[in-house]
Description:
Blueprint: E1 4-9, H1 13-24, E2 30-36, H2 40-50, E3 57-58, H3 61-66, E4 72-75, H4 82-92, E5 96-99, H5 106-117, E6 123-126, H6 133-142, E7 148-158, H7 169-172, H8 180-183, H9 185-196, E8 199-207, E9 218-225, E10 231-240, E11 246-253, E12 256-261, E13 269-274, E14 284-288, H10 297-309, H11 320-338, E15 344-345
Parallel strand pairs: 1-2, 1-4, 2-3, 4-5, 5-6, 7-10
Antiparallel strand pairs: 7-11, 8-9, 8-15, 9-10, 11-12, 12-13, 13-14
The structure holds NADP nicotinamide-adenine-dinucleotide phosphate.
NADP nicotinamide-adenine-dinucleotide phosphate is lined by residues 10-15, 37-39, 42, 76-79, 81, 99-100, 126, 128, 165, 168, 170, 183.
InterPro entries: Gfo/Idh/MocA-like_OxRdtase_C (IPR004104), Gfo/Idh/MocA-like_OxRdtase_N (IPR000683), NAD(P)-bd_dom_sf (IPR036291)
Pfam families: GFO_IDH_MocA, GFO_IDH_MocA_C
Domain Gfo/Idh/MocA-like oxidoreductase N-terminal: 4-125
Amino acid sequence: MSPLNVGIVGTGIFARDRHLPSYQEFPDKFKVAAAFNRHKEKALDFAKTANIPENKVYDNLEEILKDPHVDYIDALLPAQFNADIVEKAVKAGKPVILEKPIAANLDQAREIVELAESTPLPVGVAENWLYLPCIKIAKEQIKKIGPVVAFTHNSTGPFVTQNKYLTTTWRQKPEHIGGFLSDGGVHQLALVISLLGEFGSVSALTRQVRERSGADDIVFATVQLKDAEVIGSFTYGSAFGATEKSVFLKVYGKNGTVTVDLSDKKNPVVKVKLGGSAEDNGDEQTFKVDNDESFGVNAEFLNFHEAVSKKDKSLYLGSPRTAFHHLACVDAFLKSSAKNGDHVKVEQP
Ligand SMILES: NC(=O)c1ccc[n+]([C@@H]2O[C@H](COP(=O)([O-])OP(=O)(O)OC[C@H]3O[C@@H](n4cnc5c(N)ncnc54)[C@H](OP(=O)(O)O)[C@@H]3O)[C@@H](O)[C@H]2O)c1
């Protein structure tokens, strides 16, 4: 089968630094074949790097959607534009994969879920953390410590003043709810929810630590899962002063503990301790996880390829319904914090 021709919409930082290299790793599966960006000179520059001919750099969205050689659209835009792109892509009969978060707010996210569920075309959200290799290993181990009763998720780190993403104006003045809390937080939520299940309700406090974040940038929450008696805590923020990066999920069962530690991005580990009590305390086992430079993006693209080429949208893991839930958790954190930590139910699509 010849490679799928990808039309990139939004040729910014992540298109250049991650999507393009990931596509280029699989030349038999993908060809980055066309591009559109609102400032055309940036798309032309991207096209040079990606080997896209100039006549495939389009002046507007309608033209790239009309190109019969483009097999699907890969959109990397500020989240408030996602609903519009999905509507137009579905009308044009093109599958579309959107960068996370699914949308800027729950109303737009609901529109996307409805559009996606009303078409046989694959409409996916690029939630690369759904594809982290640690998830498969941790899932196997979590089965051994059951029943699970509680969890602690912590993702904290220092504010990085030279962060390339901070320079983007749409992040400095976010239209997407929670700013960095939804921009980065949906990743953490994807990990926790993949392993433990959906959040039912939350009690949270959020704060803005850095003016440059544009909105609240830290959250400390307690959580009750939807379909179980499991309770836990969810902490997220990279706006602190000097501190080590600490990213881990610790899952407590009646028969042991599983810890997923992603603090060292290049050396993720899953640790397991089996036993039902202090007296029955087994040795800790450590499972090394393969280092995935793409942090799940390669696997996510291969999964989307499968859904598009087999014309079966159900094969793709990052469905709009799944991504809706991640954004709905952020929405619930913010609503709870506005009520000084009252318990708030996570909304459904
Ligand atoms: N999965 C991950 O780990 C990850 C990491 C980073 C980013 N992302 C996602 O990737 C997407 C792009 O982020 P980025 O960091 O690459 O940001 P970026 O460099 O600012 O790229 C954003 C793109 O959207 C375009 N854009 C901005 N405002 C627009 C508007 N009003 N109308 C039309 N186009 C507009 C920009 O065009 P101009 O250049 O012409 O302004 C640019 O091409 C976002 O959805 C982000 O959440 C995901």
